[in-house]
Amino acid sequence: MPAIPVDVVVIGAGQAGLSAAYHLRRRGFVPLGSSADDAPTFVVLDAEARSGGAWQHRWATLRMGTVNGIHELPGYAVPPADPLSPSREVLPDYFAEYEARFDLRVHRPVRVRAVRREDDDPHGRLRVAAEDAGRPVTWSARYVINATGTWRKPFWPTYPGQASFAGRQLHVHDYRSAEEFRGQRVVIVGAGVSAIQLLDEISQVTDTLWVARAEPQWGAKAFDTAARIEAIAGVEERVRQGLPPGSVVSVTGAHWSPWAQAANDRGALVWHPMFTAIEADGVRMPDGTLEPADVILWATGFRADIAHLAPLGLRTAAGGVRVRDTRATDEPRLFLIGYGPSQSTIGANRAGRDAVRAIVRDRTAATV
After folding, report:
1. Hey, which residues does 146 pair with through a beta bridge?
2. Coil vs helix vs strand at 94
């Protein structure tokens, strides 16, 4: 089957991907198949069955009043919502309205399997191989904007004895409600935003033990927009060097969010050092004691979902991809947004804009 020619392929329709599609529209690009004869084209591919990106998979008790850092998409504000409404209901509807309002024509469910170079020409095209509802399809693109995020790649650390645990282990990715743990002892692993949110929630219904590799250093200021911008700047240098993106907490430290304060007030926000091993009935602590556990909840973050980019050979020895100002340093036809410094919702919007600006500059320079 011949590849479908297109100027830009956007992979992913979460915050970053929709931002990129919006800015492509603003710069005169049109969805593939539009009637405009001379306009440059784009196509947005999304692996999900419906709009909403990762938001549609969040736990039901993550509500609009407590979700961390929603930032509206460019050009259309989030409609007013009850603070008690589940974010997984409000935000997917908002994303769907956004796609329709700007006629972005997202193709779904499309799972991209590989991105590779068509030939040795550094100014040639990239080939995007995918499955569209199980059928193979390929696009031939001048540029690829990768916006696949991290949701499909939960990170599970490994510890001695992990397979012997008689209770339940789950990742934040699979968390649904604190009620399912009522009457059980839950070990919560991690020091990020999700770990503290779920510690607050679960500790209201049952006994918890909070462990993390390092004791959080609680900042005096709230984790506001300025703090998020600081986090973005801190991660940016890592991806320039080709290092794996660091977490927000590793850059900025912990901040006193409402859920952290609530857990602290109840006496649940008590840090314990990371256990050294897992046994059938609990976790073995550094001092040799056994802490009983029925559940281990791994709030240990996510990794970039970029396995489909492997044919391009961009991973460094350190395990990351070198990126500067959203552009892959070692493959200028590829942009990574929602990666590294643009993982936050604020950063994702800016990254979508910046990637499109760079593409427009390239096209302008090529015609001069």
Report:
1. 11, 336
2. helix
DSSP 123-188: TS-EEEEEEETTEEEEEEEEEEEE---STT-B-----TTGGG--SEEEEGGG---GGGGTTS-EEE
Q: From the centroid of its chain, how far is CA 52?
A: 12
Q: Check: CB of residue 97 under 8 Å from CB of residue 120.
A: no
The two tokens of residue 150 are: 């991290």
Determine whether 210 is exposed, middle or buried from the number of CB atoms within 10 Å of its CB (0-12, 13-18, 19+): buried
Could you give the CA distance from residue 42 to residue 104 in angstroms, rounded to a whole number? 9
Residues 6 or more apart whose Cβ sits within 8 Å of residue 41:
6, 7, 8, 29, 30, 31, 32, 34
Q: At what angle do helices 87-101 and 15-26 cross, to 10 degrees?
A: 20
Tens of pLDDT, residues 119-152: 999 999 999 999 998 899 999 999 999 999 888 9
Has this prediction a pTM greater than 0.85?
yes
Angle between helix axes 193-202 and 258-265 (nearest 10 degrees) is 40
Q: Which residues of 166-199 are buried (b: 16+ CB within 10 A; e: fewer)?
A: ebebbbbbebeebeebeebbbbbbbbbbbbbbbb
Burial of 93 (0-12, 13-18, 19+ CB in 10 A): middle
Q: How many CB atoms lie within 10 A of CB 33?
A: 10
